[in-house]
Amino acid sequence: MTRSLCRFEGRSWCPKSDQANLEAVSMALREAQRSGVWTQQPFVVELLQVAETFGEECRKTVGSNLSKVPIFNSGLGETVGGQAADAGELLSNARRIVNELPIGSAASRFYRELANHAEQMMQWISSSPLA
Hints:
The chain is an all-alpha fold. It has one domain (19-127). Helix content is 65%, strand content 0%. The protein is built from six helices and no strands. The protein is elongated.
């Protein structure tokens, strides 16, 4: 699989009638480039909205799979400086997107959780003896 989210050319590629396929798509996207969760925001929002129609457990599964994209796929995390850059980029993008989404939506909760993770990373990095 390529390490970038698919370009969807204005048509939806989100499985809307099958929970297993929806979860499989989100799992496959775990290998995408980290920027995909902000550059392909409409697709991420759609995946999360559809997941929520299958229930909270499905939303959590899809959200967990998608959260691995920006958290683990950076290539910079080998050093404290790289981790700090990753956390800063994640926090900045997640906060920007949260402000564009309806409060309480599945996507808003997802991006807020990413921002919270980035803040925790930054606190851990700043308290690290290697920092």
